[in-house]
Amino acid sequence: MKSESQTKILVLTIDESDALIREVLDAGARGYLLKTDVVTDLIKAVNALQSNKTFFTPKVAEIVLNGYLKKSGEPKEADAAAANHLSPRQREVVQLLAEGKSSKEVAVALGMSVKTAETHRANIMSRLDCHSLAELVRYAIRKKIIRP
């Protein structure tokens, strides 16, 4: 039985976040194309994948390279474990934010100041390398902090 699929995956998206790019590459995608580059690069991307090559637009390649350079020298497993380990309080904050609560609502629900809630939010987003609330919601769903 073959362990590798013959299917070649090309992701076409508007999202250029480092976290999503890493996630789809880890899932087996061999190409990543931004919708803004479709007119100039779609045929090149398909041809590259048909030739068993990878394809990234220059902008995506730069993001991938910067992510690699940022991570080089650090043990990947330790880094991933540290990033994914949230304290119980941080998990509560993530849950409330992912449920659509504002920082003020999080503060009221958890009995803290708005400034503390905003600090928690900023620290969590940085720790998880999330650049938007949508990425934080995806994280919360993947880690079963909330249900979709």
Give descriptors for this structure.
single chain; 148 residues; mainly alpha; Rossmann fold; Arc Repressor Mutant, subunit A; 2 domains; 3-stranded parallel β-sheet; 3 strands; 7% strand; elongated
- Could you tell me the CATH topology label of the largest domain: Arc Repressor Mutant, subunit A
The string of secondary-structure elements, in order, is EHEHEHHHHHH
N- and C-termini, Cα separation: 35 Å
Mean pLDDT: 81
Largest sheet: 3 strands, parallel
Q: Walk across the major sheet and give the strand order.
A: 1-2-3
Q: What would you say the CATH architecture of the largest domain is?
A: Orthogonal Bundle
The CATH class assignment of the largest domain is Mainly Alpha
Proportion in β-strands: 5-15%
Tally of DSSP β-strands = 3
> Please, what is the CATH homologous superfamily of the largest domain?
Winged helix-like DNA-binding domain superfamily/Winged helix DNA-binding domain
Indicate how many domains the architecture comprises. 2
